[in-house]
Amino acid sequence: MTVLSVQGLTKSFGALKVSDAISFDLRAGEIHAIIGPNGAGKTTLIHQLSGSIRPDAGRILMEGRDITRLPVPARARRGLARSFQITAILPGFSVLENVALAVQARSGSSFRFFRRAAAERALNEQARASLGAVGLAGIAGRAAGTLSHGEKRQLEIAIALAMRPRLLLLDEPLAGTGQHEAARIGRLIASLKGQLGIVLIEHDMAAVFALADRISVLVHGRLIATGSPTEIRQNSQVRAAYLGESEC
Amino acid sequence: MSARDAVMLALVALLAALPPVLQLLGEPFLTVIVTRALIFAIAALSLDLLLGYGALVSFGHAAFLGIGAYTALILSGRGVTGLELQLPAALAAAGLFALVTGAISLRTRGVHFIMITLAFGQMAYYFASSLSAFGGDDGQALRARSTLFGADVLAGNSGFYYLVLALLALVWLFLRALTRSRFGRVLSGTRENEARMQAIGFSPFPFRLIAYVVAGMIAAMAGVLLANHASFVAPSYMGWGRSGEMIAMVVLGGMGTLTGPVLGAIAFVLAEETLARFTTHWRLFFGAAIVLIVLFTRGGLLGALLRGRK
Ligand SMILES: Nc1ncnc2c1ncn2[C@@H]1O[C@H](COP(=O)(O)OP(=O)(O)OP(=O)(O)O)[C@@H](O)[C@H]1O
Ligand SMILES: [Mg+2]
Fold first, then answer.
1. Which residues of chain B are modeled with pLDDT < 50?
2. Minimal Cα–Cα distance from A235 to chain B, Å?
3. Which pTM value belongs to this model?
4. Is there a contact between A34 and A58 (Cβ–Cβ < 8 Å)?
């Protein structure tokens, strides 16, 4: 089954074309990595998939339904979760509350005005489970704003997982994390394989080639190649345009 | 119980004991001044829901105070003096005004939101000025103080005082529950990071609108009390200067803490009364004092108090 189908997505910022008729399909349970040099338009693509930027043309289908015009919260409620390249957390909330809010978003109405939310066991238990999965269970009580950069990245993933998404967009989840944290996040992403569709943007080529089922190469807003890791490694166009300058 | 709750509990206990003490000291008139401070504390609490929890800087909050005051004026002029009728009417009028103006102004953020709420506040001000049947620019004296189920509870200074204190405590309890509920957690979340809240599935708008309506209704309740306190209602109740003073009370006391704005409002009104006795240039000193307190005490008066205790 196809979780995500991107068809002819096009977006310009003034004269700069950042998405140039991008098309690809993501099958359920697969990790589809998108690689490309800085400024290629990867983050802008994620913004369009999540709904925070409107494409100029093209369509986005999630599980067969057109979501091109749906606002961000509506996509999230349909099971689309994302992490941000520049981490976006609730700094004044505790780590646990950051995640509990994501659980709350999919567990009944939030138009409840009197019962204390922090005392809802069901929300907290599910939030703790997500924190455990990313290895942050030990610091659930800390204010999220006081975490290290790497811990904030892990928290973002815990928030996304707590949404129980069917489609997950990760924008450079390993960037800025220490070796230990990166390995842990890598293992976590690998463990999600088969459970949901993941679009992974990452500059760490070793991680990309280890994790991805398919890889697309984005250069100047255009997908110049899509294929299995082996195919991409051997693609001469890709080597010339991009991989040639990196270690792979 | 959190430290904030403890401060509020101690404050209410202190305030409850105040009138007999002032009576003994031969200063019963001070009870009247403190009553005014407590009415503004109710208004400041309502503004804290917007400012402190929703990060919504409303510069038109005095309009709601005015709506409450004019409701009391108009109804008492028609012989309807019961608070049991005046309060629901004021709340309904303010709720409706908040629903309409909120639905428009909450489409914007930041400076635009400040400007639009200011504009709506000024519109309410000029509308009140044009009510010639109710004194126009000059305002009008209240025909009679409000009653409660036929009893003249507001006639005596201490009856009025205790009614206001009880309402203040109720509003504080209500907002404390509201801000800690699921609803309140979403509202605070939008203050922390709107993009994140959207990404997990929340549209901020309905949460903000509900907060705006609730805050407007509570401010209108303070307006009904204020009209009774002055026995007089004028458009100046809703001027933008008054909206600015309420923001100052909230920030002075410590935004987003509920207890802080109560302290801020009391400190503000008492300082105003005291300074005005000593110098005609009191506004200058007062302005300077507020700037210094906001700059040098993180978290306002409540923040300073809690740090001092440790
Ligand atoms: N809102 C915007 N308005 C104008 N130009 C923009 C905007 N957002 C991004 N750009 C430009 O579009 C191009 C693509 O940006 P984008 O952030 O999508 O790249 P990226 O592939 O994610 O890069 P990186 O690897 O550095 O994160 C860049 O040249 C960027 O400067
Ligand atoms: Mg990027």
1. none
2. 36
3. 0.94
4. no
